Amino acid sequence: MGPDALDTVIHAPARLRIVATLAALPDGDSLSFTRLQDMLELTPGNLITHLRKLEEAGYLTSETTGNGRGSLTSIALTRTGRSALDAYTDALRGLLGGLQGTDAPGSSR
Q: Quick check: 7 and 87 in contact, CB under 8 A?
């Protein structure tokens, strides 16, 4: 299995952190944009860019209620996003499992 088996949408470090954070929530639960931003220590612009990419892939949904200063945006992982993360972690495990027993840096041989 090659590195091309890894989902490039999820593979970006910030997007992987976003998806993993949302996947830790019970199915159907969400986090507010502000809470997610605080947890991941990302700037609003950076978070918006990554959320947009994940939403375009169908991996998450966002819902904004209210308007102006009183608005609240909630972010949730979709079933597609949860499945994509499962496939990504399986591919990563397979890739790393192929390194066992080699003379790669960090191996015990």
A: yes
Helix (H/G/I), strand (E/B), else coil: 32:
strand
Q: Provide the residue ranges of all domains of the chain, joining segments of one domain with +.
A: 8-88
* Per-residue model confidence as pLDDT tens digits over 15-55: 999 999 999 999 989 999 999 999 999 999 999 999 999 99
Question: What is the rounded CA–CA span in Å between residue 13 and residue 18?
Answer: 9
- SS3 of 47-84: HHHHHHHHHHCCCEEEEEECCHHHCEEEEEECHHHHHH
Domain 8-88, CATH among 1.10.260.40, 1.10.10.10, 2.60.60.30, 2.40.30.20: 1.10.10.10
How far is Cα 34 from Cα 44, in angstroms, rounded to an integer? 8
pTM above 0.90, yes or no: no
State how far the Cα of 8 lies from the Cα of 74, in Å rounded to an integer: 24
Cα–Cα nearest to 3, from 90, 106, 89, 95: 95
